[in-house]
Amino acid sequence: MTTEPQVTAPEADSGSPSRPLRRDAERNRRLILEAAKAVFARRGLEASLDEVAKVAGLGVGTVYRRFPNRDALIDALYDDLVARVRRITEESATRPRAWDGLVHFVTAMLESQARDKSLRDVMIARHQDLDACAHQPEQAIPEMVRPLLHDLVTRAHHDGDLRPDVTPTDIAVLLVAAVGIVEFTAPVAPDSWRRQLSVILDGLRTRPDGRATVLTAAPLDDEQIEVCMEGWKYGSRQTVREH
Question: What is the rounded CA–CA span in Å between residue 15 and residue 21?
Fold first, then answer.
């Protein structure tokens, strides 16, 4: 990934939450992050910090003091995304019934995607080069999500709510497919994905008569999911954006 020219300033930092920020500095940081989401959603991750500053209504120097280059800004967006996903996983894990936890997890993840269309780009970008950036492996979103899905699926099977042939990776693939629905319907009906999600959830439930369509293909495993994520181009920074 190309980076913006470095700007030297005595108070420059990467937006790390490691020290308290003055109220106005934190306000500027949030303005920059929200502007970056809008700009990256429209233009892709190659958009410049100058564009972000314009949308944020701040001077270019202010943006560079907070984030000396574009990668630092993407890192901060990824940190926000990690915190959001961690909160969703914790909420989902505490639901008394595993099925309710699964529904909450999928719904909350799609709501997040519907609000911030650039987040998938950030997730894919950092998934592809996580080893080369400053984040620790435990900050990788898949490392948070996999244990949750395994636990919820196991318990939902035990409760008899989830059809027994569904695996955690099936849930992961269906979530990716649902993200496509969010993108596809957004221009005309931003909440339409909730209709399709209901159909998906009905397909995951155990049928009262015990009869369900036989799943003829084998489920993907975790390694195959990783390969798919690395090669996934839909909606990522490789997608043609507005210029």
Answer: 9
Token pair recorded at residue 185: 């319907």
Q: Which two tokens stand for residue 70?
A: 């574009």
Query: What would the pLDDT profile of 10-52 be if each residue is shown by its tens digit?
Result: 344 444 454 555 778 888 999 999 999 888 888 878 889 999 9
Residue-by-residue DSSP string for 91-114: HHHTSSSHHHHHHHHHHHHHHHHH
**Mean pLDDT, the chain, as a whole number?**
82
* Cα–Cα nearest to 104, from 121, 86, 92, 116: 92
CA distance 157 to 169: 14
pTM: 0.77
Tokens of 190: 């931003």
Environment class of 200 (CB within 10 Å of its CB; exposed 0-12, middle 13-18, buried 19+): middle
